[in-house]
Amino acid sequence: MSQKCKLGMIGLGVMGQNFALNLADKGFAVAGFDVDKGKVNSFRDAGKGKPIATAQTMDEFLSKLSSPKVVMMLVPAGAPVDAVLKELVPKLSPGDIVIDGGNSYYKDTSVRFQNLAKKGIYFFGVGVSGGEEGARHGPSLMPGGNKEAYPQIASLLEAASAKVNGDPCVAYLGPGCAGHFVKMVHNGIEYALMELIAESYDLMKRGLGFDDESIETVFKDWNKSELKGYLVEITSRIFGVIDPNTHKRLIDEILAVAKQKGTGMWTSQAAGEMQVPIPTIDTAVSRRDLTGFVEERILASTALRRKIHRFEGDKKLFLDNLKKAFHTSMIISYAQGMALLKVASEKMGFDLDLETVARIWRGGCIIRSDFLERIRKAFKQNPTLPNILLDSDIDQTIFENEEGLRYIVSKGVEMGISIPSFMASISYLDGYRSEWLPANLIQAERDYFGAHTYERIDEKGTFHTNWEQSEIV
Question: The domain containing residue 454 runs over which residues?
Answer without folding.
Answer: 439-469
